[in-house]
Amino acid sequence: MDNFDNLHYAPHTKPGKQRQNSKFLLKLIRSHVTSVITSRRDDPDMHTLSSHWLLRISAVRWCLALAEDKYPTRSRCISLLHRDLPGEEMANSDRADTAIAFVYRGTFVHSTQQKALQILKDALLGVDTQGKIAFIEEGKELEKLSQTFGFKTSDITQLAQHEFFMPGLVDTHIHASQYSYAGTALDMPLLQWLNAYTFPVESRFKDLEFARKVYTQIVRRTLRNGTTTACYFATIHTEASLLLGQIANNFGQRALVGKVCMDRNDCVKHYKETLQDSQDETCRFIKELLNKKYPLVKPVVTPRFAPSCTGALLEQLGEIAKNNNLHIQSHISETLEEVKLVKELFPESESYADVYYKHNLLTDKTVMAHGCHLSDEELALFRETGASLSHCPNSNFSLCSGVLNVRNVLKHKVKLGLGTDVAGGYSASMLDAVRRALDASKVLTIQDPKYKTLSFEEVFRIATLGGSQALSLDDQTGNFEVGKDFDALRINVAAEGGPIDLIQDEEPKILLEKFLNLGDDRNIAEVFVAGRKVVPITE
Ligand SMILES: [Zn+2]
């Protein structure tokens, strides 16, 4: 059994957040001491007095822990508080904030910064009414937890032996609009493929009914397949892009939605914008989407890729992202032909990455798809700026684009997630992306036997925690850390009529490996996003 305390450490926490967490802890200490002093004034009996001293001792211990931890996460602060407060104070302090909505007991698997795969057997996980993980503890702590959080033990749902919970899958790169032709049109390299298939199809999204049909299908399909967070490209059409945001919100998916920007397209001339339109419509899209106040759906600034944009447009988009502190997504170094084209179009730039860098489009909220042909210098630039990559192996194979050297990306400490890249990638399922990522790694090992193939545990981490880091959403989702939103899949490996035959009882690690390699949506019994059950889908 792993040490549950490991859950609460996050050494990758950013400096700004570290300060926030330290302040948060001090605020908690202050408010608890104040509340005890107040109650002592009203009822100065010995019990409260002793509680008061207990609290003071606890406060000292928290401060010591703070110094020792240096930079505790918010959830670590809560955990320290829970550990040190006597049950009664605990019940009086955080009860109102942490009313428990539901509790599951069974096996939980997830990744942490330290471990690609952490298995928690017979764990208890409670989700509060805000959809956040209130606790994850060993089963033997049941009595203490039920007292502290005020839930009845009869309210607990017990998982079966062949079931487990894992974090929701994070698709860091998917073109919602291209879902209409997924599974076809895989017979050309990228630049020809865009002209022959993509641009003509995307131009149809000015028709809102067509858009509604495709966007409803893709959100349903990805949710059913366990994608709790998706980073979407829509098309150049503002209304249809807003509609995608609305549909994702209605179904309860966490999503970044991008209205595509492109003011350069010599081949399909009717599918492009003027510089002014692109800029104006991007601002309108951002404003209107933010005004909807969807809790889980946010806009992302989306230049299609450098060859589709003039320098002036890239400049504007960099400004817009900076002024509104927004996410950015685009493509980079997918094929060699494209890299050559970018060199011709932007002769003043040192590299492809430099084109984006010069226009303020490489930030710690940027995710770039592919990067198969990036140099080490460009990867260093990603590391320096905090920009991330989305690995889309199905697409890279299907369009014969290249094979990303994931080990080299990780060696450069660049944040990395997985993407389906529908419809360059023909499958909208992140399980397919996991398998193709393993295949891509094996191709590199075939070419060079010294290349260390990725393990399924490593790819599992990239598909979950890695994706949340790549999208800078890891303070909200990605694993089962206390304080994060409960984004989770309930997996039933032995689902009736499903694709997996279990011959005997298996350990959780084997169950996870079988699910990742053989499973499909029939094994995904329930999907939760921010504590809301979104699968099975109810109309
Ligand atoms: Zn793409």
From TrEMBL:
Q: Which reaction does it catalyse?
A: guanine + H2O + H(+) = xanthine + NH4(+)
* Pfam families recorded: Amidohydro_1 (PF01979)
Domain named Amidohydrolase-related: which ranges?
165-534
The GO cellular component terms are: cytosol
GO BP terms: namely:
guanine catabolic process
Name the cofactor(s) required for activity, per the record: Zn(2+)
In terms of InterPro entries, this protein maps to: Amidohydro-rel (IPR006680), Guanine_deaminase (IPR014311), Metal-dep_hydrolase_composite (IPR011059), Metal_Hydrolase (IPR032466), Metallo-dep_hydrolases (IPR051607)
User: Pathway it belongs to?
Assistant: Purine metabolism; guanine degradation; xanthine from guanine: step 1/1
The EC number on file is 3.5.4.3
Q: Which UniProt keywords apply?
A: Hydrolase, Metal-binding, Phosphoprotein, Zinc
One molecular function GO term is: guanine deaminase activity
Q: Which domain of life is it from?
A: Eukaryota
Q: How is the cofactor bound?
A: Binds 1 zinc ion per subunit.
User: What does the record give as the function of this protein?
Assistant: Catalyzes the hydrolytic deamination of guanine, producing xanthine and ammonia.
PANTHER family the UniProt entry points to: GUANINE DEAMINASE
Q: Which family does it belong to?
A: Belongs to the metallo-dependent hydrolases superfamily. ATZ/TRZ family.
Oligomeric state and interaction partners are given as: Homodimer.
- The protein, known as: Guanine deaminase
Q: What is the protein's species of origin?
A: Oreochromis aureus (Israeli tilapia)
